Every structure is written in structure tokens, then in C-alpha cells.
Amino acid sequence: MLAILVAAQLGDAVTFMIGQELHGIGLESNGLAVAAYHAAGLQGVMLLKCAAIIFVLTTLVRSAGRFPRLLVWGGAAATAMGMLGIAANVTSLVILAG
């Protein structure tokens, strides 16, 4: 399950990078990502994304023994957010391509 979470989050990052390269940062709705981009460019956004993934994974794994449901529900939520990001990014790219 954690591998799928990472794959979904990385998919979101990749589709973000493609969208940013093609259309700029102006279409991004995440204010934190926009601020990171203006402060440190694409590398800043990717570092922030990697830090968030590592934080979520660490939190889920460390709490799994005491709160096993947190691992399942937290992992599912983080995976769903990554998949939603992919869907939103791909939809935007398709709309802007046409």
C-alpha cells in the first residue's frame, strides 16, 4: 500500500512538472507550491513534495504499531490525494491542449 501511495504522489509531481513546463506556474491552485516555486523554482516545489511524502510515510510507519487503522486510512487518503492531483493535472493539460 505504501508503494502505491508513493507512486500516486510521484505521479502528481510528474504531471505538475509537465504542466508547469508547458503552461507556467500561473495555473497552480496550491498556494504553498506557488510560493515555493517563486522562492526556489521547480526544485523548491519538488523538495517540498519529497519532504511531504517522507513526512507522511514516516508518520504512517511509526504509528502503525499503535494505530493500525491510521496506516490504512492515512495511506488511503494520501494515495487518493495523489491520484486526485494526477487527475486534475491531466485534465488541465487535456483542456489546454485542445
Give an account of the 3D structure.
- The chain is mainly α and 98 residues long.
- It is 87% helix and 0% strand.
- The protein contains three helices and no strands.
- It is globular.
- The protein starts with a helix and ends with a helix.
Helix content: over 70%
The main sheet comes to: none
User: What radius of gyration results from the CA coordinates?
Assistant: 15 Å
Class computed from helices, strands and strand pairing: mainly alpha
Q: How do the helices and strands follow one another from N- to C-terminus?
A: HHH
Number of helices: 3
Report the span from N to C terminus: 35 Å
| Average pLDDT level | 95
Strand content: under 5%
Instruction: Give unreliable regions as ranges.
Output: none
Strand segment tally: 0
- Note the overall shape: globular
